[in-house]
Amino acid sequence: MKEKFTLTIETWHKPDMGEQENVHGLDKSQLDKRIVVDIDITDGSCGNPKEYNPDHDPTVFKSTKTGRGPLGPNWKKELAANPDCPHMCAYKLVTVEFKWFGIQGRVENMIQKVEKRLFTNFHRQLFCWIDKWIDLSMDDIRRMEDETKQELDQVT
Questions:
Q1: Which of 25, 32, 75, 76 suits a disulfide with 71, CB 3.0-4.6 Å?
Q2: What is the rounded CA–CA span in Å between residue 128 and residue 54?
Q3: Region (Disordered) spans which residues (predicted)?
Q4: What is the DSSP string of 63-119?
């Protein structure tokens, strides 16, 4: 199945509110096929209710270090109106190819749905963990990346 299945995720992080139309530099045919999915970290509806954790809910969480949160229904508009508050948009390009006649479309759609849930849950957690990472330096982050790589290399 190696040559029949590919999943690629490309990410750009930009200091904006998600208004860039073609951050990945796609050509016209790719743009015509592209589906833009807006992820709102306050929307927990795409997750399994059994997996709900109030510690990972941006509508409940309040950062003790930054004062950010809880996020309300207009959090994006409020953030855009506050130029003093740093923010970032993660632009993700998910490309799925599953070359198996008869089930290709269903499998590709299911993978896209799972990716949305994964990205939503991850970024909800990331926001709620801000007090754990806000004071990290780039050296701290690079060290943690190296440690994670070593752990992953041992597993594979």
A1: 75
A2: 10
A3: 47-69
A4: -TTT------TTHHHHHHT-TTS---EEEEEEEEEE--TTTHHHHHHHHHHHHHHHH
Are 111 and 37 in contact by the 8 Å Cβ rule? The answer is no
- Domain enclosing residue 25, as ranges: 5-155
Tell me how far apart the alpha carbons of residues 18 and 36 are, in angstroms, rounded to a whole number. 11
DSSP three-state, residue 133: helix
Q: What is the CATH number of the domain that holds 9?
A: 3.30.530.20
The pLDDT value recorded for residue 1 is: 60
pLDDT band, residue 15 (cuts 50/70/90): very high
Name the one residue in this structure whose structure tokens are 């849950």: 121
Residue with tokens 């130029």: 83
Across the range 77-101, mean pLDDT stands at 93
Domain count, the chain: 1
How buried is residue 147: exposed, middle or buried, by Cβ count under 10 Å (0-12/13-18/19+)?
A: exposed
Dihedral sign computed on CA atoms, order 98, 102, 108, 111: negative
Find, among 134, 133, 119, 125, the residue nearest to 58 by Cα. Answer: 125
